[in-house]
Amino acid sequence: MKNTPSIDQKVEMYRKMVVVRRIEEKLGELHRDGKTRGPIHRCDGQEAVGVAATAMLEKGDHVTSTHRGHAHYVGKGLDPRKIVAEIFGRETGYCRGRAGHMIIADAEHGLLGGNAIVGACIPAAVGMAQSFQMLGTGQIAMCIFGDGAAQTGICHESMNIAALWKLPVVFLLEHNEYGLTVHADAQSSVKDLHKRAAGYGMPGRKVDGNDITATYRCVAEAVEMARRGDGPSLVEAKTYRATGFSTSDMGGYQSEADLEKWRKKDPIDRAFRTLSGHVDNDRLERIRADAIAEAETAFELALSDPFPSFESHPASAPYRGEIQ
Ligand SMILES: Cc1ncc(C[n+]2csc(CCOP(=O)(O)OP(=O)(O)O)c2C)c(N)n1
Ligand SMILES: [Mg+2]
Question: Which residue from 17, 162, 176, 299 could staple onto 232, CB 3.0 to 4.6 Å apart?
Answer without folding.
Answer: 162
